[in-house]
Design a protein that fits this description.
The complex is a heterodimer of chains A (about 110) and B (about 350).
Chain A: H1 9-20, H2 69-75, H3 99-102
Chain B: H1 2-11, E1 20-25, E2 29-34, E3 39-45, E4 51-56, E5 62-67, E6 72-77, E7 82-88, E8 94-103, E9 109-119, E10 124-126, E11 130-135, E12 140-146, E13 163-166, E14 172-176, E15 179-184, E16 190-195, E17 221-229, E18 236-244, E19 250-257, E20 261-262, E21 266-267, E22 273-280, E23 287-294, E24 299-306, E25 313-316, E26 322-326, E27 329-336, E28 342-352, E29 358-360
Antiparallel strand pairs in B: 1-2, 1-29, 2-3, 4-5, 5-6, 6-7, 8-9, 9-10, 9-11, 11-12, 13-14, 14-15, 15-16, 17-18, 18-19, 20-22, 21-22, 22-23, 23-24, 25-26, 26-27, 27-28
The chains are: A mainly alpha (about 110), B mainly beta (about 350).
Chain lengths: ~110, ~350
């Protein structure tokens, strides 16, 4: 709708309101379409399992779920209960090349 | 367009035989996979951590790997399969996240968008993404430049950073997103914009930064999939575009209406045929199809349903005869490009990252 512009004060206020929704800092549940509120962060998600998908469920996860574990670890691809790659467990994957087969080699991380 | 395709046939005739795949893998290596033998023939160890990005130099002689553990860069000589340069950007109280990047034609600098994370006694501060110049010989960041408000949309960090390319003379940088931003390489000053949209990201699987179509790029050319829309009803069309990095000339070759989600576009070495995986629906209702395009007539010539992985990347063999579906795991599923039928699964023995792959003859 770039070809439309506000002609009166009320329309300008609507424009300003829409622009304010694109500010850098927004409440997490106030961003985008209404969806289940899933706390972000790799180590913050404890329910329903170690990992949920973007919709708050498990239907969107890889099969088997071990396929997801490393991408959750390094990038929080899905919110998941995995160690903190950024600061405390950078080399968590060092002893395990294939999570689906060798997951028993992954170290247990204690806070 | 057709004469360009004809040139491509000659230029890439050498690619008729199977080639070599370079796959970034956990915990810290690049797998070298021989397509003919169907096995991992070498493993290039990395010292700076998990590889999260792979870029092929324009002359196809070097691979630039970005790693995430300590935010490093490693340069691999393709001929010897050896790491010839490696370093990390992190310092004791600063971490950096490297997003989109490209090396200059001489291999001296690496231009990137980075985010700086500074550790204070009781908290971290995360900066906005900045244009960053990394000196590969000095092995450090030598310049950062604030990104203007107008360019912030192209540089959101994580998945939201447009791919960077550099002109053959090393003087201009191009950033590809909803528009093409032209920057002066010496100081990242924005010189101009070209309006053109990148593929819609909603519903798409892994989008790799950079190298999707590296193999078919002519020197000084950026080839990628683009989406354009008209200004009235915003009807989205997707197609193949070639952007001349020297003359800023764009060839846009529309193919058809843009579907809900497309897992990249892979083009055969002779540039006659392209493939994509189109997905519709999400989660339980998700459905995926291979689409084959004849690039001479810009028509879809074949479709076939393919099982949907939740996350995957589409790849193509060096000779264009096989299609690969890989990512989120340790396997590559191989499909025959002519029939779109499943053939076999290669077990790599190692999980690969979502950095993408480099395919070389």
């Amino acid at each position: 709708m770039k070809h439309m512009r506000a002609l009166n004060k009320k329309a300008a206020r609507i424009d300003n309101y829409v622009a304010s929704r694109n500010e850098d800092v927004v409440a997490m549940q106030d961003h985008g379409p209404q969806r289940p509120h899933v706390p972000m962060g790799c180590a913050l998600m404890f329910s329903p399992g170690w990992e949920v998908d973007a919709a708050g469920g498990t239907a969107g996860l890889c099969q088997p779920v071990e396929r997801d574990i490393y991408d959750c670890f390094v990038s929080c691809y899905w919110p998941a209960q995995v160690p903190d790659h950024l600061n405390n467990a950078t080399d968590w994957t060092a002893k395990c090349a294939t999570a689906t087969k060798d997951w028993r080699n992954l170290d247990i991380i204690f806070p | 367009m057709i004469w360009r395709l004809a040139l491509g046939i000659t230029a890439f005739a050498a690619l008729a035989t199977p080639g070599t795949l370079y796959l970034p893998a956990y915990p810290a290596s690049i797998l070298v996979f021989d397509e003919d033998k169907a096995e991992v023939v070498d493993k290039i160890p990395l010292t700076t951590g998990i590889p999260m990005g792979i870029r092929l130099s324009p002359d196809h002689k070097r691979l630039y790997i970005t790693t995430i553990d300590h935010n490093g860069i490693e340069v691999i000589d393709v001929a010897t399969r050896k790491v010839i340069n490696h370093f990390v950007l992190n310092t004791p109280n600063k971490q950096y996240r490297i997003f989109s990047g490209t090396a200059d034609p001489g291999g001296k600098f690496y231009y990137a968008v980075t985010k700086e994370i500074t550790q204070f006694p009781e908290h971290f501060e995360v900066s906005k993404p900045k244009y960053t110049l990394i000196d590969l010989e000095q092995q450090k960041i030598v310049k950062t430049v604030e990104i203007t408000k107008e360019e912030e949309a192209l540089n959101q960090g994580d998945w939201g950073v447009g791919a960077l390319e550099i002109s053959p003379d090393g003087k201009l940088l191009y950033q590809f997103g909803d528009k093409i931003t032209i920057l002066q390489a010496s100081d990242f000053k924005v010189l101009d914009h070209i309006d053109l949209a990148r593929p819609d990201t909603a519903g798409m699987e892994n989008i790799r930064y950079g190298g999707d179509l590296d193999l078919i790029n002519e020197p000084g050319e950026h080839t990628a999939m683009f989406v354009s829309s008209d200004p009235i009803v915003h009807n989205h069309l997707f197609g193949l575009a070639r952007f001349d990095l020297s003359t800023r000339r764009m060839d846009f070759n529309p193919i058809g209406p843009a579907p809900q989600g497309m897992a990249g576009l892979e083009v055969t070495p002779d540039k006659k045929t392209a493939y994509t995986v189109v997905s519709t629906g999400i989660h339980g209702t998700k459905r995926c199809e291979f689409w084959t395009f004849d690039l001479a007539s810009d028509r879809i010539t074949q479709k076939a349903e393919v099982p949907c992985r939740t996350r995957f990347t589409l790849g193509i063999s060096a000779n264009g005869k096989k299609l690969y579906i890989y990512g989120a795991g340790f396997e590559i599923e191989v499909y025959d490009a002519a029939t779109l039928k499943y053939e076999k699964t290669w077990d790599l023995g190692t999980d690969i990252t979502y950095a993408g792959i480099a395919v070389l003859p």
